[in-house]
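INFO  loader      accepted 1 record
INFO  loader      residues=365
INFO  predictor   begin
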Amino acid sequence: MKKLLIFILCCVVGNVKAQSFCEVDSVYTMFDRETAYRIIETEGNSFITVSIGGLNGSTQVNVPLVTLTKLNSCGHEFWRKIIDFGYNNYAEIGELWTDNSNGDVRFTALINGTGSLLKNNGLRMYKVNSQGEVIQNIKIGDTLFQYFRIKSLKINENKYILASNVLLPQNQNSVCYLIDSSGFILANIITPNQSSILEVDQKDDGTILLIFNQQANFLILNIDSLGGKISEWQIPKLDNSWSLQSFGTNFSGTEFLYSATRENKMALARLTLLGAKIKDTVFENESFGPFHLPYERNNINYLSDRYFIISKSKVVLMDTDFNVIKIDSSSKNNSRIYHSILSSDSSLVSVGNGNFRNVGSGNSV
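INFO  predictor   done
INFO  writer      dumping tokens
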């Protein structure tokens, strides 16, 4: 039976030292092919992760299940709750946030059905209390659409952005909604034609960035907190012969970083929001052994404006000058790491899928 991957690695960013602080074994689940896509820290150095499981091991029914799990600092479960179903087709996780001091959390997802289950298609926002009980299950969007690659942003406690790519007969390839905490649509934001959503982020000045991928360019749409357009501009890709893999913006929303692959190489590039190149470099794939990142999942996670994680089956800690600080190969059996955070005690916490044991090198670097 497959297992939900949780690993915890103590990483003091600044002194740049890393060591394991507890042995984390596999967290067994009742669902085969389960993958965790997001994790956040909550009260008492505990964590909540949201995942999708594929095959129910008891009934052998192939129904994607959206599951929320609360864990202690060594990855052991406090509780585990099924939140929703993928209705025999497809589900995808967006973002996960704490909602208030009561321990409530919100997260976003998309769900697609087929046949008579098309009525379930849509973007979702869930609110769950500290015991895993669902308070809200909000569905947004047209049920005629097939959605893929959800991106979402919490602007404040009562305002959120939900965006996704869609399969449409028209030229428009993405949708974007500004909603309140009850799911009421405050604005239907017009998105550019022939483009797909890459990232949604908030700048230090409170305005929002919507970043789209086009054939030869990145397109950036800057909007205000009411959904009104402030400006729009295009940035040519540095080299369109490379295949875009992952994309991320830094904490302050002042620059972005993306990875691309070609043959046996991986390129990393940092650009300002206006497209000026800050730094780029090329790594041989063998350095990460091998390192083909999946396009459909963003495997770049900023830990601060100085350090970031780029990951697949290995976790590579880098600084923004692209110096490799540490490569951790704790995950085994071709598992993937989908999300990493830096916890309040400077521990690196990552989630994904696959099997593993005894994570953490125990060595300083």
